[in-house]
Design brief:
By secondary structure, the protein is α/β, with parallel strands linked by helices. Helix content is 31%, strand content 23%. Strand 2 (47-53), helix 2 (59-69) and strand 3 form a beta-alpha-beta unit. Helix 5 (148-160) crosses helix 6.
Amino acid sequence: MTDYCGSAWGIWDLHVHTPESLNNHYVGKGDPWEAFLNDIESLPVNIKVLGINDYIFINGYRRVLEEKKKGRLANIELILPVIELRVDKFGGTHNHLSKVNYHIVFSNEIDPDVIQQQFLNALPSKYVLLPEYDYIREQGQWGGLTTQQSLEDLGKLIIQSVPEKERDKFNDPLTEGFNNLCFKLDAIQEVLKSPYFKHKVVTGVGKTEWANIKWNDH
């Protein structure tokens, strides 16, 4: 080894949404994936690592890996899968409480199929709905794997549960279903104890909730 450059620094962005995400900025931009790939390839040269975070879905990460194999995203050295879940804990202050968003950053050594099968598919018994709609789950009106179709079905049930004159205040069914879903933190941590994930995950809470916590309240 003849190149002694010392430390090399690179920026990591572990919260990147693809066009597959429920929250993205590529709607109405022609081919959303081409726009997304061009944006990533136009990033400053010191951004080296990305975390693909499409909430509870892994298909966007799969697509990014496929594009990388085809020669796209040559400027990015490492791509990591990230799952973001709303958990049954509150952050913020007494005057402004919000559900905590829990982030799981998986190693790139874990195959997407393993994340789907051993983590995401293990979560259905771990979720609850927000209090005003949890009776839908408790009464057996909704359940199963958290797919886009099942979340859309949940959203329809939620919207149908309110008077018709109030329904225009809601988002589309898929968004409403997703917005009302949360998970038990201790149950998530239990699933992550699987040998499939040992020493291959890092977890953390959302930046906003962390910044708003009143630390002098113990």
